[in-house]
Design goal:
Blueprint lengths: L2 H4 L13 H22 L4 H4 L10 H24 L10 H4 L3 H5 L2 H20 L3 H4 L2 E4 L3 E4 H23 L1
Antiparallel strand pairs: 1-2
Helix pairs in contact: 2-7, 2-9, 4-7, 4-9
């Protein structure tokens, strides 16, 4: 498997320090992701929704549902970090969630509607954060301490990453 299929936009590059202009751009990307996913799926056929974007990879349907699952988890992590002192967050088994019946069979419109509402609220929250709040952190059991500004970048990248996967199939 080539990295161009697995990471069509490349891997996330961790920022060295807080850059407010970059954070604002990332928030814009997060806010706009649901529209971009809808646009990418506008002409998708039923067969395309159930086509993996790479050998051994998830189907387009699984990717759309994964975006909703992952981004719901992320919003919770932000809220924990904003209301607790460096909370340790609970990871989840993405690959197992991707095999659950709702992820395998539910209409993508369910997750698209969820992404619309979730990203609208998420962007409101992120856009209101102060510099001090952007520097707040959570602890990930595998990744260590993650500042919120970095996590905004991770999830802007995550959206672009999976949007590229969808476009590999839908064009």
């Amino acid at each position: 498997m080539t990295d161009s299929l697995r990471y069509p936009i490349g891997r996330f590059v961790k920022p060295e320090k807080l850059n407010i202009a970059q954070v604002q751009a990332w928030i814009g990307e997060i806010e706009d992701l649901p529209r971009q996913v809808r646009d990418a799926l506008r002409t998708a056929s039923a067969a395309q929704l159930d086509t993996p974007y790479r050998p051994g990879g998830w189907t387009v349907r699984q990717v759309v549902h994964h975006l909703a699952d992952s981004h719901m988890n992320s919003v919770v992590r932000f809220k924990l970090a904003l209301t607790e002192e460096q909370p340790t967050i609970k990871p989840y088994r993405e690959e197992a969630w991707a095999e659950l019946p709702d992820t395998l069979h539910a209409p993508v419109e369910l997750s698209l509607a969820l992404l619309d509402a979730l990203h609208a609220r998420w962007a409101l929250l992120l856009g209101a954060l102060t510099e001090t709040e952007l520097l707040r952190t959570f602890r990930h059991p595998d990744s260590g301490v993650v500042p919120l500004y970095e996590n905004i970048g991770i999830y802007a990248w995550h959206g672009r990453h999976h949007l590229a996967h969808i476009r590999l199939i839908t064009g």
